[in-house]
Amino acid sequence: MKNSVFKSTLCSMCKYPIILAGLINYTQAGILEEVSISSSGFIRLETAFSTSNDQNVSNQTGNPFNNVSISRQAYTPPALIPNISSVLGLPVPEVGTWSTLPLPAIDGTSPGIRNVESKESDINYGIIRGELDTKVNFNDKISLNARIRGVFTSPDLYETHFDASEFDSFQGGVSGGLSSLYHGESNYFEYRVEGNDKPNPLEIAGDNYLIDFPALFLEYNTGPWNFRLGNQQIAWGQTIFFRVFDVVNGLDLRRHSILDYAQEEFADERVPSISLRATWQATDNILLDGYIQKFQPSVFGNPNTPYNVIASQFTVHDRYDEQGLNDSLNFGLRAKGDYGNFGWQAMAVRRYNPDGVFRWSKSGVVKDLPNNLGTVGNLVNLAYAGTLDRQFASSGEALANSPFEVAPTGVCSATEYFYYAAESRLDGYNGLNAAIEEFEGPSELFASTVNTIEDAVAQLDTFFMAAGGCMRGHIQREYYREDVYGIGGSYVTSGEPGSIFDQMIINIEMSITPDRVFTNPSLSKKRIVEDAFVGALVAENYYRFTQNFPATYLVFQYMYRNADDLVGRSLEGYGASAPVGTPSPGDIQIPGGVNNAQYLAFAAQQPFPQDIVRLGFAVLYDVRGGILLQPGIRWKPSGDVTVEAFYTHIDGDLGGNPNENTLSTLDFADELTIRLGYQF
Amino acid sequence: MHIRKYDFNYGRRSLLKKAALGASAGVLAPLFPLIARADDPAKAYPEELTSIEMLTKGKVKVGDVINANNVEYVKDLMDPITYMQIKDMGRELELVAPITDASKLFGHDMFEATIKNAGKAGLDKDGNVIVAATGEPWIGGMPFPDAKSGLEATANLTLSWGRNNFSLYAIRDWDIDPEGNVTYQYDFPWAELNATARVGSDGPYLEGKKDYLRYQSVWFTAPNDVAGTSFLNTWHYDQRKFPNLVGYLPAFRRVRTFPTNQRFEPLVPGISFFLSDAWSAGDPMLTWGNYKIVERKPFLGAIGNNWDGKLENWEKPVHGGPKGQSFFRTRVQLIPEVLVVDAEPTGYPRAPVGKKRTYIDVRNQMVVDYVTYDRRGDAWRKGEPSFGQFVDGDKVFKDGSGNTAWSFTHVQFHDVQNNRISRFSQTKEITGGYKSRHYQGDEDVYNKYLTSAAMQRLGQV
């Protein structure tokens, strides 16, 4: 703790002589007589040690296909079969499919071996964090609140640290997308979108550091009215972790993703946004809360960072700036009523969905298929050069008008393609057709839509071989407006004194978003539009199991979602599967979708006497076969020092298809997190 | 030569006898008429109950320091834990002369209202305090200035905790571990606003809030890890009901409703203070039961002379314990008669507390000491407040209406089973710029400190 009053604060600021001199001048002038300044902060080491051998498959070094021999076979594109038949006089039908006419193994690219080395890291996450809070009360109505947060990590901590430039000599290296994210070393913290390297104006970030302001706002209070202007976070609702009313801010997953101590909810994740918030205690019982906010999207982990969830064979083009959303506003209003044991709340929010929607995008990368004599790429190039009515000068230009880029670190086999489609809750089969149908480039290079998975595999492997190894996929992230309406009710029970049912707080919260836009699992531009319903029930209480320990805090929650999962992915992409290795097409399942997502959560906190030691436990269960378990302990041996440890175990394969539950995406993240904090 | 009118033990025998009878306070005369005239309360008692020197047969006198060397002489005038603190932990108490002007035992408005409304209070069939003639909620002042039962005495404590319509206490807390080290230190403002039982010109009730007794909030401003943690209790007038509790936890970034029936839990790490401890009447009084006056006796209590307004930030010197940090300097005076009230947590069958024993000064019906016992009957925790007018020599702190402020100056809690101590001092100012005050005036303190919106604002970090 620091300085409670202005004078003592001044002493702590002696190292800032210019500021100090300025403040003294103001004080002498009597301007700051009412001003009080207080500040405090902490420094904390946070380390998450991996306790399993599993690696994040979304990253290059965790790709299970690395150095795995995958048999590939190139085929004659159906569009070229008649030509070959007539020109060469081969005994093949004039009309065929992708699996009709295999090409001889002439280029040595089969079997395909993904030439990225798999690595294991003992540390999933390691940062040093510092935060400083300052509050300046100018008078009893106006104050300034500021919290600055700085985090720093070292790439040396991570065995899995990746450098794409090491592959510049393969297939011409990686060219597409933002250089800072895709062409070099893992970038742990920078948030970039196309056309704007500072989409969040109040943060400074580099590859290994991030400085931002979770709070930086002026506050004005008069009677029942309160106004806040500046960078801030707004959270609504009674449910914890389950976001029903908590729709105002997106999430920033760059640090510890959603794997912080569950009991802290999203304290470190909500994206602060420049906002004007007005709160009005309309009556003793009714509180109105409204805001206007600069739209700030959710921030996902960058490629090849520990908790990245977007397969790193994709290059993402974030269109936030190009859509002109830098200056776009979100609005919302919530009313909350409390009447003793009963309560209600209602909200209406007009916002851009901060998660965004993904679809195939033109790669824009002009890089020809390799033209070494006798290769599949050479054959395609020759065939395309001989096409009289071609639209593009070269295969490179055609690919620039497709969602694909000839590049290392991409997908190298059909099997890998379908495996990652399933992992990403996407539909690889229809995704291939969408990429061919919706862009001019692929069909120029003789790609064509397919009717069977067998043909999809044949076509994909043909093009991977034509590319001389692998191809990266390009997708874009766009944002859509939506209106979210919510209602909720609460009731505090009265039961037998001392029983668990006495003073239990029960809340039901529901929201509906008409015509919410979702990513089509095929990544088609024909996005899924569906009314999205989210409902949650939460019951919580304190209960004394023994007179020797303080009461245990218990909370139980249930969530139902009809259209998307806990992190906003359309449920239509659920249910696909593909094995690692060289499967037969029958082993590849396209997603069948699921009707709903349901989650159960239970959390408990048990303080010891004096609350110097506190145990915590949380479990999140996806009824389709995933579970997250997180026991933890917080020890506060003195006022300055806090030690926290929590173990996270995720099992996304409790039965059935792991791609039918949400948690399998983070299955790799079994880890022990330790935090050592010192506050001042 | 001083001629004694009564034998030496007359006063004590009389008090002992009265305890079982439900009689009025006072031995030689009823006490309350003297109080009402702002007279010297000592006139209601024989001299051995008003003079420490006489009571101890000259072993201890006003001006002395009670320490391990002389505590045996006053052992009967304190609870067993205080005795242990002095005998074994190096605690000392400074003896001052008893107050002779009864009005100085109160704040101005509280005193006026108590006199004005004396005799008007009653208990309804449920045990709630009402205006006997109308059945309306209480109209201010002590409802039972001459309490004759444990419930009446507890009602005096419960209906107006701080005995001002509004108080904002800028509290600094030090928490001492068994080795005597200050291991935790917290700053928190504590705001109270009575909705009913109000005194002074503001009327007995806040408009439209007759169903509530008080609004009370607390929010931590330091250190960093708890800063922003805030809670708002809305107390129903019906003392059978638990307060409504909403809170702002920084991790959640929003105000949420919390269960309120667990009242024996530490609010923050290291602190030896429970919600139930406030004024030894931290729970709605009808959620406890079996109130009983078990004894009337003289007692040493800190009921004045303890405001150190001349010291930096009003923070008191400390002493005692292994590191000289365990206890505030405290000045006590001989109280001729306290009620010793026992109560049991009948509404909390799983509570760790089995019994609470409260020592109440009959002159102003204020708690001067209390001890809780665990379910086995062993002494567990002690709370020892100090009250008084805010006068330190020529330095006086006014309450905003021009009257001398009256409030608590400090309070100490001691968990003797874990040997942990928490010391609260009402200070001039704490982190965040919050200053102690005891007057509402024209300020909209309700919206500023005591609503859900206020919790959101005050809790923000």
Automatic annotation (TrEMBL), chain A:
It comes from the Bacteria. This is DUF1302 domain-containing protein. It comes from Zhongshania marina.
Automatic annotation (TrEMBL), chain B:
This is DUF1329 domain-containing protein. The keyword Signal applies. InterPro entries: DUF1329, TAT_signal. Residues 1-38 form the signal peptide. Keywords: Signal. The keyword Transmembrane helix does not apply. Gene3D superfamilies: Lipoprotein localisation LolA/LolB/LppX. The lineage of its organism: Bacteria, Pseudomonadati, Pseudomonadota, Gammaproteobacteria, Cellvibrionales.
